[in-house]
Amino acid sequence: MRTTRLTAAMVAAAVVSGTLALASPASADPTPAGTFRKLVGVGSDTTQDVLNALAGDTVNGKSYADSAVKSTAGAGLASYDAIGSATIQTRSGGTTFTRPNGSGPGRTALSMSLTGDLFPNATGVSVKGQVDFARSSGVSSVSGNALTYIPFARDAVGVAVRGSGLDSLTVDQLHDVYAAGSDHKINGQTVHPVLPQSGSGTRKFFLAAIGLGENTVDTSITTTQENQADTALTADGTLVPFSVGSWIAQNNDIAPDHSKTAVAAGAHLAAVKLPNDIGVTSPVTTVNGKLAPVNAYYENSTFGRDVYNVVPSRAIDPTSIFFDKDVYDVFVTSGAHEAAFASEAAEAVIAKFGFVNESYNGSVNLTRHAKIGGLEISGLELKTPAPPVLKTTVGDASVKLAWTAPNPAPAQPVTDYRVTLKDAEGALVATKDVPATTTSYTFPGLATGTYTAEVAAANVIGTGDAATWTGAVKFASTTKASGTTTAYGIVPKVAVTVTGTHGVVPAGKVTVKEGATVLGTGTLNSAGKVTVSLSNHLKVATHTVSVSYAGSTKLNASATTATVKITKANPAVSTSAPTSVSHTARAKVTVKVTATGTTPTGTVRVYEGSRIIATGTLSAGKVTVTLPKLSRGRHTLHAFYVGSSTVASKNGVNFVVASS
Questions:
Q1: Alpha carbon separation from 473 to 175, 428, 450, 467, 552 (Å, rounded)
Q2: Contact, 310 vs 134, CB < 8 A?
């Protein structure tokens, strides 16, 4: 538990020693007038002066040209004040639009710069591409991940008061005096609470710190431009939340003065009893005659706050097609990469303007004070795209993803697709962002193993749910096969050779099919070869067969076709007949037809010359034919096998029967 930091007398001394210099207010848009730079920022009054200095402009009569922060490619900052002329133009030839005043309007302008919506409302103009970052003294209440809030420095919100009776305040007192229905009294003294303008990050933060919101605050309270004591503290008993960093910078003659008159009349920052503290803590102290932050107040979780630069999340994602190296160089600290804003020279300027530098300045890590939020556009349909329809083809150590766009199309059009590959352990192997016009991507050169591929569509709202595929990635195999020309009845064969890429010798099974019918299988030998024997009863025809290799643990499956030609079997015809017979008798002739691998069927004819004298039907490959009575004399005869669908026709040799 901390104890009292500063007494009321010490607070008063700090105020006296930090009296504001008599600098006149000045706008610090990019100078000279008409200057345009690559990185355009708008928004918060709280950080506008320090950002102007880091842009290299003149602030409160001092040139910061030597302190200009730039990207490695030389892109500079153009930071436009929250107040000034009614409109601004941020690009050469760009649209002229209403000046965003405060954190909320700045973030809205950035959001509309992404979508092309009209700023500040439907009667405004399109600001597409006109803003690159927003200065913000608070975080978004809009869910999403389209915007990243990068911590820039540490600030605090104090209470600027006029009148000695308000030197010390408590959170409860502040709550009660700002709450709806308040009698506006502190310790019996009537006070005059004031709030910053609507859209102010300081206003939003302060109300939350004292336990209020826009629906519970007294709506009759006067509002004023934030961080301007002259317009807020016009009478004794007045109080207004104030950026301590801005108060210090104005008092130290660093930032343009908007509080000289009020300070001369007794305005100062009140000490506040922080939650769980015994005494009160002043936000400021005096070092060498200048105001300086009280770290205990800045680091307090109630009144201390981070201030941010807000950028499109996709602009600082090195894997995104929308990655902006200039934005990344200036704003982001990640790994060995240091933000230009986190350099020693830049942090010296930041400290000069009353802010505290932290080790996490520039971090985009959500565990180190970075935040994310959605686009701040009223009525915007905050939906990311549905998953695309995914088709995956596995190749040689590769996987090809092809997809069709989400259906129905999202209200905010698809801008890009995020393609990701992870290994079996879920570790990221590779990721790629491709334009919305691209509908396929291949991850080449992979090791064998199981992978999960994802494709997600994105729009300005964020990245949608992914379509996924999980499967094995292997090396390629090539199958070659040659068939034979074989007579029916003899086993036909297909010679198969399978080769693998990356020096892998194929192993495993080969299957030969005709249509859905398996004709034969075989296992590859150590050389990746096998001869597959097929059925010896294939029809007599030319067969186109499919030859497929099933693959192995390291090789993909592959297939080819081969031609197998089956011809009719070549038979042998033999006869057995008497050499002589009486002319009154009828001789019997036995005909036998044989063929390799099959038993012929069909008709046998017995000829004398060209005349058929007898016929018979084979049974079990033979038949006994009874001849007609032969006239006396020698008869030269021969048997003829007519053939069948599987066996060719064939003449037997001549034989002689003598009739007497």
A1: 63, 15, 6, 18, 11
A2: yes
pLDDT of residue 15: 37
Chain position carrying tokens 């942090």: 347
**What amino acid is encoded at 79 in this protein?**
S
| d(C-alpha 69, C-alpha 339), whole Å | 10
Domains of the chain with CATH codes: 27-151+307-373 (no CATH), 389-473 (2.60.40.10), 477-567 (2.60.40.2470), 572-659 (2.60.40.150)
Q: How confident is the model at residue 23 (pLDDT cuts 50, 70, 90)?
A: very low
pLDDT (tens digit per residue) in 375-414 = 999 888 888 999 999 999 999 999 999 999 998 888 899 9
Q: Over the chain, what is the mean pLDDT?
A: 92
Say how far apart CA 85 and CA 261 lie, in whole Å. Answer: 23
- pLDDT confidence band for 13 (50 / 70 / 90): very low
- Phi, psi dihedral angles at 333 (to 5 degrees): -110, 120
The tokens of 509 are what?
């099974």
Q: Which residues lie closer than 8 Å to 463 by C-beta, 6 or more apart?
A: 145, 384, 418, 456, 457
Q: Token pair for residue 308?
A: 């941010």
Nearest-angstrom CA–CA distance, 19 and 388? 63
Q: Quick one: tokens of 552?
A: 């192995």
Is 423 buried (19+), middle (13-18) or exposed (0-12) by CB count in 10 A?
A: middle
How confident is the model at residue 248, as a pLDDT? Answer: 96
| Among the listed residues 88, 25, 32, the one whose alpha carbon sits nearest the alpha carbon of residue 56 | 32
Residue 240 has pLDDT above 80, yes or no: yes
pLDDT at 169 over 80: yes
Residues 6+ away with beta carbon under 8 Å from 9: none
Q: Per the structure block, which two tokens stand in for 516? A: 């859905």
Q: Give the pLDDT of residue 12.
A: 36
Tokens of 438: 């691209």
CA dihedral of 175, 187, 267, 244, whole degrees rounded to 10: -30
Predicted local distance difference test score (pLDDT) of residue 281: 93
Nearby residues of 126 by Cβ (< 8 Å), 6 or more positions away = 95, 112, 116, 117, 118, 119
Give the tokens for residue 330. Answer: 């200036």
Give the number of other Cβ atoms within 10 Å of residue 92's Cβ: 8
CA quadruple 611, 614, 617, 619: dihedral sign: negative
Six-digit token string for 152:
């820039």
**Ordered DSSP codes for 465-497:** EEEEEEEEE-B-EEEEEE--EEETTSPPEEEEE
The band of 278, judged by pLDDT with boundaries at 50, 70 and 90, is confident
CB of 407 closer than 8 Å to CB of 390: no
Distance of CA 500 to the CA centre of its chain: 34
DSSP-derived secondary structure letter, 341: G
Strand 603-608 with 580-581, pairing: unpaired
Q: Using omega within 30 degrees of 0 as the cis cutoff, is the peptide bond preceding 410 cis?
A: no
d(CA 425, CA 421): 11
pLDDT grade for 276, boundaries at 50, 70 and 90: confident
pTM for this model (two decimals) = 0.75
